[in-house]
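Researcher: Here's a chain I'd like modeled. Treat it as a single chain, no partners, no ligands.
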Amino acid sequence: MKKHPIILYQAMKVQDFMLPELLNQEEIEERSAQLENWKIIENHHLVGSYQFVNFASALEFTRRVGEVAEDLQHHPEIDLEWGQVEITIFTHDRDGLTDLDFQFAIRVEEAFNPREGDEVAKFMSLLEGGDLLEKREAARKLGALKDARALPLLIRALSSDDAALRRRAARSLGRLNDKRAVDPLIYLLENGDDILRQYAQDSLVELDRLAVPGLLKALESQDRRKRKLVVEALLEISDEENPQLNR
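Model: Modeled as a single isolated chain. Structure tokens:
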């Protein structure tokens, strides 16, 4: 049934009423005082600029910004480069700045500077910039905390020159319940370090069904030792509820 023009007009007015109001210059200046890494551009939009020591850290921060955007249902433009993330935000429906833009910017600031007591952020920082003993302990602890934010750094740690750090990172990856860990762990099954290969296999088993597609594909490997580890992992994962392994 066709809606009456008056009803459509009223609906549009209600929708317009629900949008946040544009801020005036005084309100913009007051709210901007809470922000450290943001600039106001022509009183129309905010631009945040964040620096990082490498691409992995910048990428992980971008992921956290995406979580903020989804939570607020307010989506920015994001420019990701090596070691730098630039974010632009304004309220499109109002063609300017509203409280929603500053809420978003404050949440991004919190993502960049996590609250004291955020153990995951603390150990991620140690894994990236601590001394060798701190890095080893951080790799172990991040597995125990089971937070996927640590995944990119743990994958990077697999390339460390330190065997103990590589092994701890491999074991921790299995505890994150994240399928992105599967391919790096399968790659380790060809490594010359027997202990590292065993830890990688244990982690793949712990990832359970998440690891099955990758393991099945790895059966095509020409490396006999790798195929043996893959079969053992699949046998440990196999159960009645896994149709891929019980055909």
